[in-house]
Specification:
The chain is of the alpha/beta class and 324 residues long. The chain is built from 11 helices and 13 strands.
């Protein structure tokens, strides 16, 4: 079993397959299409399989999340899913995506072995969506969410990054949408990293403030066991009697670092022991041109020795580099 210097067991790999994404969300990576980074030599499917298989067999890894950028930007995504899903011991294979192409790809991903999906959705307002993401694709995202449900990529979760002055007026509508369509929803505190880092104090909305916004339509909150999940989840009864599962990812006001069980690897092989930290080494030479387990062990040991007990005050990367 992998563990860091604080004794936390590492059982969860968040694998960023690409830094590419057709959106340019204001908190992630704004700018025109020509400024979008390209991955010149990303980890190949066979290299990803070697990495995950070794971690599962040697260290008990059992959970993998595919992130980006957006993983659906990889033309070989289905092959990657198939390879990981076939590895014994991987019991939870999930993906975070913008959902733009899910309507036509959800069935394919499910057949390949994907278990569940989180879809980014920051607003239900067409004009807000365009302003936040730089895209007119709201209807495509909504269709993708429904397709994910149809093909049992469940639980289908909505991820909402809450930004003051942009979409903080949408919390009630999003919660009602989730309840109506039997979805889980996670409201995420803005973190001081990426394009809005300099204005974070003015743009962030805390979990307590989110709950205040939601209070008029909520009858009761029932906290669910947290374990090592980044979200504190609640079973919520709304004023109309409907029930919905709501999570808050409160990295800034409700730090959950003491239970962190994850490590992040990017498409270029960089190892990030923490979302808000700098990379602590690279494992590409352990996978290319051939798999070298001793080199991999050394790279992982170096990275985990630098995993701090609590995340830094501000992040150094942007989400498209490291994945959420």
């Amino acid at each position: 079993m992998l563990s860091d210097a604080s004794g936390r067991k590492i059982e969860y790999l968040r694998l960023s397959l690409t830094s590419e994404c057709p959106l340019r969300c204001i908190y992630c990576r704004p700018g025109p299409a020509g400024e979008r980074p390209q991955d010149d030599h990303p980890l190949r499917p066979v290299e990803i399989e070697s990495l995950v298989r070794y971690l599962a067999e040697r260290h008990g890894l059992h959970k993998v999340r595919l992130t980006g950028g957006d993983p659906t930007s990889r033309p070989d995504l289905t092959e990657i899913i198939e390879r990981i899903a076939a590895i014994p011991g991987i019991h939870d294979l999930s993906m975070t995506t913008h959902g733009l192409t899910l309507a036509r790809k959800a069935r394919e991903y499910k057949k390949a072995g994907l278990h569940r999906v989180n879809v980014s959705l920051d607003t239900l307002d067409v004009k807000q969506f365009q302003r936040i993401t730089g895209s007119d694709g709201l209807e495509c995202v909504l269709a993708g969410i429904h397709a994910a449900q149809e093909f049992a990529l469940h639980p289908v979760r909505i991820n909402t990054v809450v930004v003051r002055g942009e979409n903080d007026d949408q919390l009630v509508a999003l919660l009602q949408f989730a309840a109506r369509h039997i979805l889980e929803i996670r409201f995420i505190e803005l973190m001081p990293m990426g394009p809005l880092a300099a204005s974070w104090h003015d743009r962030a909305v805390s979990e307590s403030q989110m709950r205040e916004r939601l209070a008029p339509i909520v009858q009761s909150w029932h906290a669910l066991p947290r374990k090592s999940d980044s979200a504190q989840r609640y079973r919520v009864i709304l004023d109309d009697g409907t029930m919905v599962c709501v999570g808050f990812i409160s990295a800034m006001t409700g730090c959950f670092c003491e239970d962190c069980n994850r490590i992040r690897v990017t498409s270029d092989g960089s190892i990030y022991p923490c979302l808000m930290d700098r990379p602590r080494g690279n494992l590409m030479s352990a996978l290319r041109p051939r798999f070298e387990p001793d080199q991999l062990e050394a790279a992982l040991a170096t990275a985990l020795s630098g995993k701090q007990l609590r995340h830094p005050a501000a992040g150094v990367a942007v989400m498209t580099q490291i994945g959420g």
